[in-house]
Design a protein that fits this description.
With 445 residues, this protein is an alpha/beta fold. It contains 15 helices and 19 strands. The strands form four sheets. It has a seven-stranded antiparallel β-sheet with strand order 13-12-1-5-3-17-18. The chain is globular, with a radius of gyration of 25 Å.
């Protein structure tokens, strides 16, 4: 069963301050900068990934909407100030009391694809007001982008079949709604998590549990039929019955005996899913239940989903692999200072280099819509020539003078951004096998 969907964002924190979702050293750096007078220097920080997770060909920007909500609640009330006062001087505590971000933020639209070096977020303001945002920015972008990137691969593997996010019990309880949101952003159809439905408007869906079937066992044996009958009485004939608690063949037969041939669906949660799906489909068709859907679940990832593409599966329930990024639980983004008072600055540490200066980015595409290259260039320079390709600027205004840009995209609109991006990739970019990024990122001098 599925709840009604909405396509508007909901303020995530309900008034809860996000100011202490940070690292202590950000506030101690702030204290030092306030003391030596450098806190007011005008700076640009950029969030980007030096590389994609091993073997991945693209990433999906996720969490932008959540980030803007978190920024609105980045305030130091008395409880937060009391926590900081234990290690900060009174002058810094007083500065935090009046903290409001008053700068500008540009970024890739949520749902946009990104590649190594893409300047996903550009944050401009005083050093003091920008530096304290590092951890909250990275924690949201890294988590949500990792989940969205994994989910997008699963969407491709599913080939248009229904996908339900079911990972709440395999991740932190506070991360579960964000994971569901990121999966929906990338193209999943629904989530089992009700907080994600309430907070973000993600459609909710659910089937049934083995416990419900076992509940109807008694001293005289198993009463699977009684459990099925009870579920149908409560939820209607369109419900999905879990048929593998005991014997799948007997379970399917019992389900149709109880529900009739108009039963909405059956779910298989164990065993060789491909073999079982074929057997169940043949059995359902033989019983006259040709329209009854088959839902499979049980430690699925993009590879097992792809392996089931030729099987008669109508929907997939995905949990553990999704909420852990399918082997890449973080997007690996960093937040680096790239400009101070108009002068480029860059980190030179081995394997951790950054490129100085505030940047812009163009994505080039053929007339067919297939993207071919991303060009990153200096925001202070001239827009590069595009050699006849169609070019699109990637960074869009997100915050101006501390205020979020009006007419923020809805989550549904951001889903469309992901879908269009995946269609624009070169065909090899959609492969699940390990490979290089789908397009190259060039840096104009």
């Amino acid at each position: 069963m599925t709840s009604a969907a909405t396509d508007t964002y909901h303020v995530e924190s309900n008034g809860f301050s996000t100011a202490l979702l940070t690292d202590r050293y950000e506030l101690t750096m702030l204290a030092a900068a306030l003391a030596d007078g450098s806190a007011r220097r005008r700076c640009t920080f950029e969030a980007f990934a030096r590389r994609l997770p091993n073997g991945r060909r693209y990433g999906v920007v996720g969490g932008t909407g959540r980030l803007l909500d978190a920024l609105a609640h980045f305030r130091f009330g008395e409880p937060e100030l009391a926590a900081a006062a234990g290690f900060l001087d009174p002058a810094t505590v007083d500065w935090l009391r009046g903290y409001r971000f008053t700068g500008d933020i540009d970024g890739y639209a949520e749902g946009e694809l990104y590649f190594p070096g893409s300047p996903v977020l550009s944050v401009r303001g005083s050093f003091a007001e920008c530096v304290v945002l590092e951890t909250v920015i990275l924690s949201i972008l890294n988590h949500d982008s990792a989940i969205a990137s994994a989910a997008a691969r699963m969407v491709t593997a599913a080939g248009g079949r229904r996908l339900i996010e079911m990972g709440s019990r395999r991740t932190h309880e506070l991360a579960a709604p964000a994971s569901a949101r990121a999966a929906y952003l990338a193209g999943f159809d629904a989530t089992s998590n009700l907080e994600a439905a309430r907070r973000f408007g993600v459609p909710s869906a659910g089937t049934s549990a083995h416990a419900f079937t076992l509940l109807h066992s008694g001293a005289d044996g198993q009463h699977e039929a009684e459990a099925f009958r009870s579920q149908i009485a409560a939820l209607g004939i369109g419900t999905t019955l879990l048929v593998d608690t005991f014997d799948i063949t007997r379970g399917v037969a019992t389900a149709i005996e109880v529900a009739g041939t108009d039963l909405g669906g059956v779910r298989i949660d164990s065993g060789d899913l491909g073999v079982l799906a074929r057997q169940v489909r043949e059995q359902l068709d033989g019983l006259g239940a040709a329209k009854t859907r088959i839902v499979v679940s049980g430690d699925l990832d993009e590879y097992s989903i792809a392996a089931l593409r030729a099987e008669p599966v109508d929907a997939y329930g995905v949990g553990t692999s999704l909420v852990t990024g399918s082997g890449a639980p973080t997007a690996g983004m960093v937040y680096k200072l790239v400009e101070v008072d108009g002068l480029p600055v860059a980190k030179r540490s081995s394997h951790k280099q950054s490129r100085g200066g505030t940047k812009r980015a163009l994505r080039l595409a053929r007339r067919t819509g297939t993207i071919v290259e991303e060009i990153v260039y200096s925001a202070a320079g001239t827009r590069p020539a595009t050699a006849g390709f169609e070019a699109r600027e990637l960074l869009v205004p997100l915050v101006r003078d501390g205020v979020a840009a009006p007419q923020r995209p809805t989550l549904v609109e951001s889903r469309d951004v992901v879908a269009r991006g995946l269609v624009s990739l070169p065909w090899e970019g959609l492969k699940l096998s390990a490979g290089e990024p789908a397009i190259t990122t060039s840096f104009a001098d």
